[in-house]
Specification:
Elements: E1 2-5, E2 12-15, E3 35-39, E4 45-49, H1 50-55, H2 62-66, E5 68-70, E6 76-78
Antiparallel strand pairs: 1-2, 3-4, 5-6
InterPro entries: DUF7561
Protein name: Small CPxCG-related zinc finger protein
Pfam family, one: DUF7561
Length: 81
């Protein structure tokens, strides 16, 4: 499982799948990632942890991603503009 950091809050995240998990089976098969890539209409993409994804509004913008911050290990929020 590939490891990286969240573009929103900086938490360490894991990305499910990929070449690292081609020959991994069973409980540690790499299917349980902790982040997803969010792609915007302007062509940019951001790797975000699930707490950051949950903190974004329904129609997020790149500016919303820039305002993300970690509150604790399980939640994120948007800083006030």
């Amino acid at each position: 499982m590939a490891r990286d950091t969240c573009d929103g809050c900086g938490r360490a995240v894991s990305v499910a799948g990929g070449m690292a998990n081609v020959w991994t089976f069973g409980k540690n098969d790499g299917s349980a990632g902790t982040a997803m890539t969010l792609e915007f209409d302007d062509g940019t993409d951001h790797l975000l942890c699930y707490p950051c994804l949950a903190a974004l509004p329904d129609e997020p913008s790149v500016a919303d991603v820039d305002r993300l911050e970690s509150v604790d290990g399980e939640t994120s929020r948007l800083r006030e503009p």
